[in-house]
Amino acid sequence: MKRSVLLLLPVCLLLLHCSPGRGEEIPLPEPNLKGQVSVEEAIYQRRSTRDYRKDSLTLGHLSQLLWSALGLTVDGVTGPTRAHPSAGGLYPLEIFAVVGKVESLKPGVYRYNPLNHSLLPLGEGDRREELRRAALGQRCISDAPLDLVLAAVFHRTTTKYGERGDRYVLMDLGASIENIFLEAESLGLGTVVVGAFHDEKVKAVLGIEEPPLAIMPVGRR
User: Fold this and answer.
1) Other C-beta atoms within 10 Å of 15: how many?
2) What is the rounded distance in angstroms from the CA atom of residue 179 to the CA atom of residue 170?
3) Which of 46, 28, 29, 48 is nearest to 37 (CA)?
4) What is the pTM of this model?
5) Range 5-220 has CATH code 3.40.50.300
6) Which of these, 160, 157, 153, lies nearest to 96 by C-alpha position?
């Protein structure tokens, strides 16, 4: 995938400043740009799913889901764009993978780096049960082999747009969530959006400072 990183240097520096890693960066498989399910089929078949099989996911599954949420896409006028639209091209969202059972990946918490399509380890160990408790005991979170947590650095957007930027961040969130839903459908996986949780407890489980906005458990149906 072509990446005109130099054209994104200001954004890169901002992301690196706000997104420190705590371990060696882990490259992800390149995303597949052609699936077996049409957009129309994915929209029609999409359902919220809270029950998952115990089977592990693959690293390819994780790669596709993260790319669909925040990954780089075709080159735009000023450089690569992202998988979802963003006001002013500022991209305030961050996404974290709470991994329990993903093949070839140790259980732990990882931050997605869209510029390199890679993972930055933040903490070791299976945190799904801790995350479930932080989310009012919702069992789907600990049952799923993988939980995706979307958070935001609001000032990336509000610095330009003021208070109105808060609304724009939520627009970004909605677009990213729908991308994850459709990608999961394309992969034959199930997911749901969880919004009921204690923000500070989720931040403590992940070891992050950004306010969490949504949790999406993902698993085989």
Assistant:
1) 17
2) 14
3) 46
4) 0.89
5) no
6) 153
pLDDT grade for 82, boundaries at 50, 70 and 90:
very high
Per-residue pLDDT band for 76 (boundaries 50, 70, 90) equals low
Q: Tokens representing 42?
A: 């994915």
Residues 6 or more apart whose Cβ sits within 8 Å of residue 190: 47, 49, 51, 52, 184, 218, 219, 220, 221
Domain ranges across the chain: 5-220
**H/E run at residue 140:** helix 139-143
pLDDT for 55 beyond 50: yes
What is the C-alpha to C-alpha distance for residues 87 and 100, in angstroms, rounded to an integer?
Answer: 34
Residue 7 binned pLDDT confidence (cut-offs 50, 70, 90):
very low
- What are the Cα distances from residue 36, in Å, to 40, 183, 187, 210? 12, 11, 8, 35
Distance CA(123)–CA(26), nearest Å, equals 13
The whole-angstrom separation of Cα 147 and Cα 191 is 9
Residue 113, token pair as written in the block: 């780096």
